[in-house]
């Protein structure tokens, strides 16, 4: 740059020195201005990244504070309602693979511990489930109910491999033909810790708890279908089957993605106590602490104590006698964040095995289907 050169006083014979110096000065100003803009841009980028990493755009849940100590249910009002007949209500869970049999047995006992009065129905796919696994899963109170597999639309294109059978859950809506007026579906990887009969009195057609993710998605508007309240209707079921093939949605999460699209603006978002997803504890421990004394249902999403694999694939079917060892083996995952919840599941399982020992032992003697 001529302006900064030690030869700036040199006078060439062939040039307009004044014009050259003016041009050089303008170039220097432009370069300095560009450098200032680049520096300012870098500073702003760092600032925005910092703000985003600290949840600049927060929800009240990201900024959770211990404020509301009032109960979830208005007991005075609830007690004034006429309770639905036990045979008109049902708790349903689904089994698509043998590896979930012990989880369902534990879920069944957890329902007994909280004096759940509803019928218990176990949806299962006969072509996928062994006699031994079905015996184990139904040993604690679930009544086996074979259902037809509902295949994912578009031959499963875009559906996660673990959820290829999950659309079969939609058979829930066929229970209206059997006199069921209200149903609560619980995923097999849930554990009931308090009675939730108040859900059966809801005046709505569908309700579920908003989903939670550990990553950047955080507290979502979309609901999680691990716990569902629904009023069965064959008419609704047929409508679902008709529209599933043409509805536009990202099908990677199978039935959950479809139901979020199907109910969309009509779904009632239930409080987190009805689906205490372990992701809440990892994302907002303070919120989890406040929920724990009111939680009805714990959902073992991130660590499943009855599965051997850290990816929760369920490829290995664990023997009943190895569950305690497996739970201890899985403690420590996610830096031990869920060790207490894993211990709770194991304590209920130990109780389940002690109370239903004869029935479970008999199941173990059944030869699996070839």
TrEMBL record:
Organism: Postia placenta MAD-698-R-SB12
Annotated signal sequence range: none
Keywords: Membrane, Transferase, Transmembrane, Transmembrane helix
Superkingdom, taxonomy of origin: Eukaryota
Record SUPFAM superfamilies: Nucleotide-diphospho-sugar transferases
Transmembrane annotation, as ranges: 28-50
GO molecular function: glycosyltransferase activity
Name under which the protein is recorded: Glycosyltransferase family 8 protein
């Amino acid at each position: 740059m001529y302006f900064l050169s030690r030869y700036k006083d040199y006078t060439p014979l062939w040039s307009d020195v004044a014009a050259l110096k003016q041009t050089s000065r303008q170039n220097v100003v432009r370069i300095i201005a560009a450098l200032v803009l680049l520096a300012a841009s870098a500073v702003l980028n760092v600032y925005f990244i910092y703000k985003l990493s600290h949840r600049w755009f927060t929800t009240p849940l990201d900024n959770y504070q211990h404020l509301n100590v009032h109960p979830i249910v208005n007991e005075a009002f609830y007690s004034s309602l006429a309770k639905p007949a036990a045979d008109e209500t049902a708790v349903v869970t689904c089994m698509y693979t043998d590896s979930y049999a012990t989880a369902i047995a534990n879920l069944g006992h957890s329902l007994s511990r909280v004096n759940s009065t509803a019928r218990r129905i176990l949806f299962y796919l006969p072509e996928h489930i062994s006699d031994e696994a079905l015996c184990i899963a139904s040993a604690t109170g679930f009544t086996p109910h074979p259902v037809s597999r509902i295949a994912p639309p578009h031959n499963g294109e875009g559906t996660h491999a673990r959820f290829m059978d999950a659309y079969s859950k939609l058979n829930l809506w066929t229970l209206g033909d059997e006199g069921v007026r209200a149903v609560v579906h619980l995923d097999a990887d849930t554990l009931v810790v308090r009675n939730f009969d108040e859900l059966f009195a809801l005046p709505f057609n569908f309700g579920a708890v908003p989903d939670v993710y550990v990553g950047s998605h955080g507290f979502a508007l979309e609901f999680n279908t691990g716990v569902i309240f629904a009023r069965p209707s064959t008419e609704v079921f047929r409508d679902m089957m008709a529209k599933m093939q043409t509805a536009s949605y990202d099908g990677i999460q199978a039935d959950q993605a479809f139901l979020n699209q199907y109910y969309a603006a009509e779904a009632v978002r239930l409080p987190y106590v009805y689906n205490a997803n372990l992701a809440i504890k990892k994302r907002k421990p303070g919120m989890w602490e406040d929920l724990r004394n009111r939680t009805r249902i714990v959902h073992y999403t991130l660590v499943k104590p009855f599965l051997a694999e850290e990816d929760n694939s369920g490829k290995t079917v664990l023997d009943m006698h190895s569950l305690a060892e497996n739970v201890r083996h899985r403690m420590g995952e996610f830096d031990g964040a869920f060790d207490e919840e894993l211990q709770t599941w194991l304590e209920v399982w130990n109780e389940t095995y002690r109370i239903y020992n004869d029935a479970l032992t008999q199941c173990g003697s059944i030869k699996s289907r070839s």
